[in-house]
């Protein structure tokens, strides 16, 4: 994952009525410092940072001068909750990248001075946005949201005057598949420039689309009826739908090969399974490929069954085989690894994003920065209302996005976004 950008996800909150901004910042800073001692006991310190730019003014919150994480307090003049939430069904605002700290820092892989973790708390007119940037070589999505939730739990405990005892303490034990021993593992490179690849995608349209529980239930029923197998999951059916609709929007030649790639976690698939609290990376990407003609002329159930098979085949033995292959020929994936005709499903609606309770109510929205974006990238989030709903962040070239939003199969499944007044009416305590 060294060639990938940082995982950059964040949560939008309304201001709690009983706390000042200064109190919020202090609570978040002190609890973050404690979270670091749980997750990085050898280097749990905050570092100083100063930055300005992009209409965001950043202030420094100092807690020691170690080489740990960075905490940035920023102010976004003239931007409110409605500006962020209104992005549902519309283009995501470009200033979202300014809500994340790594975009303010120089990327220098020769010296590699970036922190592994940086946090930015951005003041809006009527709320705050908490953005985390975590080096993807250190965590996957499971670990990312584990840390986010633990930080929130610590904040909540400290505010209530309770002893901090994490409900899910991180598991740091490392193990190596038989025959490869302990680190360091030597790689066949003499310089980082041989495997670090930075990709600058063309201008993209980035939009959020909402799928209600009822809509997804009907989609799953349809996929299982059409494939006549009865084992298609909701996410497999949704992935197949997006693969079909985006491929149709691209208007590719019928003989063109197209691929659907799905990020998949290994923890429960390994035997014995890894702890769900294992803190690190334990992921792979599985894929299925067919021609445009086969994908579009057959039904949704057929393409969903392809996705189902690729996931079902990702077993303990398959994971171990991938490790053996890697150790014989180490390589690094980057955004150029993905074929331009592919659709990539990343993140997961199973991640507990809206369970991050800092003590002032449920988040209003989850959003991401500009990192790791490319044509055909889809990021899955749980829907705000829960109950099996899903939000998808879709990145496409402008002409493809325009076609997707006219696609009849897509429009039959996508749901109206949550209204701002509903979010605001139930979010605060």
The CATH superfamily of the largest domain turns out to be: Chloramphenicol acetyltransferase-like domain
Q: The biggest beta sheet, please? A: 8 strands, mixed
Strand content: 15-25%
Q: Write down the secondary-structure element order.
A: EHEEEEHEEHEHHEEHHHEEEEHHH
CATH hierarchy, class of the largest domain: Alpha Beta
Cα gyration radius (Å): 22 Å
- CA-based shape: globular
Key terms for this structure?
single chain, 429 residues, alpha/beta, Chloramphenicol Acetyltransferase, 2 domains, 8-stranded mixed beta sheet, 6-stranded mixed beta sheet, 14 strands
Q: What does it look like?
A:
One of its GO terms (molecular function) is transferase activity. This is HXXXD-type acyl-transferase family protein. InterPro entries: CAT-like_dom_sf (IPR023213), Sec_Metabolite_Acyltrans (IPR051283). Pfam families: Transferase. There is one protein chain. With 429 residues, this protein is of the alpha/beta class. It folds into 2 domains: 7-190, Chloramphenicol acetyltransferase-like domain (Chloramphenicol Acetyltransferase), CATH 3.30.559.10; 205-350 and 371-427, 2-Layer Sandwich (Chloramphenicol Acetyltransferase). Helices cover 29% and strands 20% of the residues. It has 11 helices and 14 strands. α4 (213-227) packs across α5 (234-250). The radius of gyration is 22 Å and the shape is globular.
């Amino acid at each position: 994952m060294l060639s990938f950008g940082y995982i950059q996800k964040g949560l939008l909150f309304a201001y709690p009525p009983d706390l000042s901004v200064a109190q919020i910042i202090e609570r978040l800073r002190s609890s973050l410092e404690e979270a670091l001692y749980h997750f990085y006991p050898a280097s749990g310190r905050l570092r100083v940072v100063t930055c300005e730019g992009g209409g965001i003014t950043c202030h420094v919150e100092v807690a020691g001068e170690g080489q740990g994480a960075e905490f940035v307090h920023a102010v976004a003049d003239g931007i409110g909750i409605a500006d962020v939430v209104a992005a549902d069904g519309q283009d995501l605002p470009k200033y979202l990248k300014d809500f994340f700290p790594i975009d303010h820092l120089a990327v220098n892989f020769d010296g590699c001075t970036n922190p592994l973790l940086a946090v930015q708390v951005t003041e809006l007119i009527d709320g705050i946005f908490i953005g985390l940037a975590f080096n993807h070589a250190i965590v996957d999505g499971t670990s990312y949201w584990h840390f986010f939730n633990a930080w929130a739990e610590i904040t909540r405990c400290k505010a209530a005057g309770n002893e901090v005892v994490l409900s899910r303490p991180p598991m740091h034990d490392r193990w190596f598949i038989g025959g490869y021993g302990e680190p360091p593992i030597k790689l066949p490179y003499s310089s980082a420039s041989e495997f670090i690849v930075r990709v600058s995608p063309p201008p993209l349209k980035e939009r959020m689309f909402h799928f209600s529980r009822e809509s997804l239930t009907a989609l799953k029923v349809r996929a299982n009826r059409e494939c006549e197998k009865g084992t298609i999951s909701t996410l497999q059916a949704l992935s197949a739908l997006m693969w079909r609709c985006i491929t149709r929007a691209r208007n590719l030649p019928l003989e063109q090969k197209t691929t659907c790639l799905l990020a998949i976690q290994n923890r429960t698939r390994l035997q014995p399974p890894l702890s769900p609290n294992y803190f690190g990376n334990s992921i792979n990407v599985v894929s299925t490929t067919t021609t445009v003609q086969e994908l579009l002329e057959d039904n949704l159930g057929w393409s969903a069954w392809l996705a189902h098979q690729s996931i079902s085949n990702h077993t303990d033995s398959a994971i171990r085989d991938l490790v053996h292959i890697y150790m014989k020929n180490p390589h690094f994936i980057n955004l150029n690894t993905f074929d331009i005709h592919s659709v990539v499903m990343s993140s997961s609606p199973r991640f507990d994003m809206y369970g991050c309770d800092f003590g002032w109510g449920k988040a209003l929205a989850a959003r991401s920065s500009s990192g790791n974006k490319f044509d055909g990238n889809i990021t899955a989030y749980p829907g705000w209302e829960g109950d099996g709903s899903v939000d998808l962040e879709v990145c496409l070239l402008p002409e493809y996005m325009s076609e997707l939003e006219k696609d009849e199969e897509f429009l039959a499944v996508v749901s109206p976004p949550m209204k701002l007044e509903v979010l605001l009416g139930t979010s605060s305590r």
